[in-house]
Amino acid sequence: MPSLRIQPTTLKAALCAAVVWLVQGCATQAGDPPRVQVVCAVDAVAAESVVDLRLQGVVQQQVSFRDDTGSQARSYTGAALWPLLQACALQSDAATDLHGQRAAALRRYVLASGAEGYSAVFSVGELHPDFGNKASIVAYAEAGAGDADAAGTAPSLRITAPGDVQGSRYVAGLTRLEVRSSGSVGAGSGAAQSQAVQVLGAVKNTLRLDEAALRALPAVTQVVGGRRYTGVDLWALLSAVAGIEADSASGANVQGMYLVATGADGYQALVSLAEMSPELGNQRVLIAYRLDDQPMARGMARLVVAGDGKAGRSVSALEAIEVFAAAPAAP
Asked: Which of 87, 237, 261, 287 has the fewest CB atoms found within 10 Å of its own CB?
């Protein structure tokens, strides 16, 4: 009989995971390990893999959020989300340098899908450590609860969205993580100076906003990186003026939508609508038309994502905001 050979790295990871779970007193007595399907759909042909989460390192996370029953405080154990997606998110045939890879990544999003068809969108930009740095995990155990649905079955998974006000993006029964390209075909006009910003896509009212139209809207000011930006709150513009085309009047599926901002030079960045919603991520995003009380040096307006660590999603010479509803995962 041929001998069984075990790679040292595999053995080490397995032993570490086992030790942690025994110490915590929550090891599964029987059943399959927690696994999630990861789909890289940034190319024409999607690549799929099934990841054993207990071999990815163990993260403990305490979160709080609101749901239909009131305020919740939870303690989860799982694997960090970003390392599961990083290789796919940064994949680029057109660029091998880090700058080009990050630019490609900022045009992508992640669709997290549960067993009953429920899904939520996270932009790659909000997850990337250099930008939004949202420390989401794929949880397979919760303090005070068993980590298996029944004897002999794998633990039920849940994605977390730390910092979200409500729990709409805490997709329970998680089965699939899919990294997707934006779907936008916007290319930018190539003009040296943008003259207006269009708002289009999944909105009730298509808009074309020149500087006078932007200035006629309620102004907000935000200090970002020591610079003072003045402009229009993008969430207020979308929800109150353009009107978000959600499945219901309440906007119940905002967690499944995103926008793509395009500059005159064709540069693009993607923001999930949940990031901006006061009921979810509560992150301020501006269409800014003044910088330190002066006109923009390049173009009429700029997209500014206030909470990002780096300014990769601050699209200069802004020309278009396209709103999308993510298609559900394939059955």
From this structure: 87
**How far apart are alpha carbons 134 and 132 in whole angstroms?**
6
pTM here is 0.86
Paired tokens of 297: 């040096």
Tens-level pLDDT at each residue, the chain (331 residues): 333 333 443 333 433 343 333 333 333 334 689 999 999 999 878 899 999 999 999 999 999 999 989 999 999 999 999 999 999 999 987 767 888 889 999 999 999 999 888 999 999 999 999 999 999 999 999 986 654 444 445 679 999 999 999 999 999 999 999 999 999 999 999 987 788 999 999 999 999 999 999 999 999 999 999 999 999 999 999 999 999 987 544 344 899 999 999 999 999 999 999 999 999 999 999 999 999 999 998 889 999 999 999 999 999 999 999 999 999 998 7
DSSP 166-226: BSTT--BSEEEEEEEE----------SS---EEEEESBSS-EEE-HHHHHTSPPEEEEETT
Tell how far CA 326 is from the center of its chain: 12
> Distance between CA atoms of 43 and 295, rounded to whole angstroms?
39
Q: Looking at the DSSP assignment, which residues form a beta bridge with residue 304?
A: 286
The pair of structure tokens assigned to 15 is: 């032993």
Q: Label residue 128 exposed, middle or buried (CB < 10 Å: 0-12, 13-18, 19+).
A: buried
How far is the C-alpha of 221 from the C-alpha of 291, rounded, in Å?
10
Q: Which two tokens stand for residue 284?
A: 């301020």
Q: Which of 266, 251, 270, 262 is nearest to 308 (CA)?
A: 270
247 touches 264 (CB < 8 A): no
